[in-house]
Amino acid sequence: MTNEEYIHLYRREDTRKLALKRVPAGVDIKYCLRQIEGWQIACRKLPRWSSADGLQYPPRLAMEQCSSEQTACYKRDVVMRLLPPEGCGRRSMADLTGGFGVDFSFLSPCFDEAFYVERQEELCALARHNFPLLNLPHAQVVCADVDATSPLLQRHFSFLFLDPARRDEMGKKTFLVEDCAPNVHALHDVLLRAAPLVMIKLSPMLDIAAALRVLPNVSEVHVVSVAGECKELLLVLHESDDCHFFCVNLGSTDPCFSVGKGALESAEKVEFIDALPEGGYLFEPNASILKAGLQDVLCSQLSLEGKLHPHSHLYVNRQTVSGFPGRMFRIVGWCGFDKRGLKDLLRDVPQANLTLRNFPSSTDALRHRLRLREGGDVYLFATTMADGTHIMIRCEKVQEPGRPDRLLV
What we know:
Blueprint: H1 3-10, H2 15-18, H3 29-45, H4 47-50, H5 60-65, H6 69-82, E1 92-95, H7 102-107, E2 113-118, H8 121-133, E3 139-143, E4 159-162, H9 184-194, E5 198-202, H10 208-214, E6 218-226, E7 229-237, E8 244-250, E9 257-260, H11 261-266, E10 281-285, H12 287-292, H13 295-301, E11 306-307, E12 315-317, E13 326-336, H14 339-345, E14 351-357, H15 363-370, E15 373-384, E16 390-397
Parallel strand pairs: 1-2, 1-4, 2-3, 4-5, 6-8, 14-15
Antiparallel strand pairs: 5-7, 6-7, 8-9, 10-12, 10-13, 11-12, 13-16, 15-16
Helix pairs in contact: 1-3
């Protein structure tokens, strides 16, 4: 049996069980298990890739860390919006940190000339094999490291893309832009001489304000979540008089929240509330807005009545709000953390969705204390008011008419 036959026959099987079975003659089981596992991850993250026959996949860690098809398509759409319209000359791009090539595979069809640059020969070999199968015959694979003297950076491109490594030589995570490799802070001027449009993909763990302090010419900041989980931070270097922030939650019906730097400075202050409004509503901004630190700006623009605490990031209003980018709940009741109050509030609640915000406990510990199973239609928020009082809020989720909870992903 050949490797290809084995992979095709068993690609839907559990690789842990396959590893324990007898290996047919002629099969490189280590290679086959990696390809089967890679294909199974691609079915979830990269539907277009998984439907292409004959692709080769890297080890599991690289597959788990690579961009998803959703986030890659989002980058493509941002770049297409910022590029000059077609017919204004030949378009060219270079991905200077190619990796597995997912982002490159979605960006490069927008260009007449496309360079994939990667310092690891193993990944370059995979790219040379995979790109023709993905209908990318114009892709040019370059095995090289990137620094200020790189020959490619002496050329002129329409667009450059970088996804710097966020681990140091010891394998520890880095949290500053200048500690990533390549160092985009040091390369800033060189990059903008080589292209008028540059996109840098960073970890959502990085500090946005710190990144903006060391990188001039940032015209757009995109905080990208998928189904409520913050996945990527994108900085766009491009000529502009202002810096705009975009917060998106892909895989949901949340609208994109966008605001310019000027609007941030003029946003009205959101006041604290002393008590929850009877029959009111509780608002929880999505992960992208919280990461960008724009929750107060959002709620000021929506004219919500107030917030509970500086660090709780929960807001209230007497009315619902159409198109809120996050979760919205109707407040059923609330109490302090005295035994009698909790007993009355939770009398008929055997299970609930429990969220802690700015509260001195863990979710598991509080769930155990309250003897609550997970799930159901009841939503509980354990949080802190502005005066330091700990409260429990009981809610029902509000679904806007015609707006599903989330899109299929």
